[in-house]
Design a protein that fits this description.
The protein is α+β, with helices and mostly antiparallel strands. The chain has seven helices and 13 strands.
Length: about 200
């Protein structure tokens, strides 16, 4: 267990010099936030490529009977010893998503069988790089617990307890952490002014 959480607990000088860590959230003068080197609500997908590199997947992910969303997915995000999966979302319009789906070069069901993945054409792939990042989801490879969350992210402004999961809410940082009893932890980042829309389904 100690080995599993050590990247989050490591507070050595070398570890503290790293950047792009999930608890390094800067609140900017205009009230927006910067995390993973990206400014939520301002950075474009092209900026993501410049900062995080091109080892990613980009596709439309759509559950059954849903239009879907455009997602940029890093399956092996890493900062020092810390690794995990990083997914970036945009607010691209539903009309444009439908166009991208119709123009996709292929589609396939996800492993869960509950959603479909539409692979963009090369022309559309270049076109969507101008879209703005409105949200990020980080799923760490290391397991978290309450002690680690409070140590790294501070005391939550609010906690919401649901069956099998506790949500730690940080509205000023635009951060919501879901701690699952069974399953992986999920960290969601949005601009603080969009935070209430993010957590509304929890209420």
């Amino acid at each position: 267990m100690v080995l599993a959480v050590s990247p989050f607990l490591d507070k050595s000088d070398d570890a503290e010099k790293l950047t792009g860590l999930p608890w390094q959230i800067d609140v900017l003068p205009d009230g927006s936030t910067e995390v993973f080197g990206l400014q939520v609500g301002s950075s474009r997908l092209s900026d993501v490529l410049d900062i995080l590199g091109s080892d990613m997947d980009m596709a439309i992910i759509a559950a059954t009977d849903e239009v879907g969303s455009l997602e940029m997915y890093y399956g092996h995000y890493r900062a020092g010893l810390l690794s995990g999966k990083l997914v970036l979302q945009t607010d691209i319009s539903e009309q444009e998503i439908l166009r991208l789906r119709e123009n996709s070069v292929s589609s396939e069901y996800m492993a869960s069988g509950q959603a479909k993945k539409y692979i963009l054409s090369s022309d559309d792939l270049m076109r969507v790089l101008d879209e703005i990042v409105t949200g990020l989801t980080f799923i760490p490879a290391s397991n978290l617990d309450e002690e680690i969350i409070l140590s790294r992210f501070g005391e939550a402004k609010e906690r919401i307890q649901l069956t099998g999961v506790t949500h730690y809410l940080y509205p000023d940082k635009g951060l919501a952490i879901a701690l699952h009893e069974d399953g992986k932890e999920v960290l969601q980042y949005v601009s603080p002014d969009a935070f209430q829309r993010l957590v509304a389904p929890l209420r």
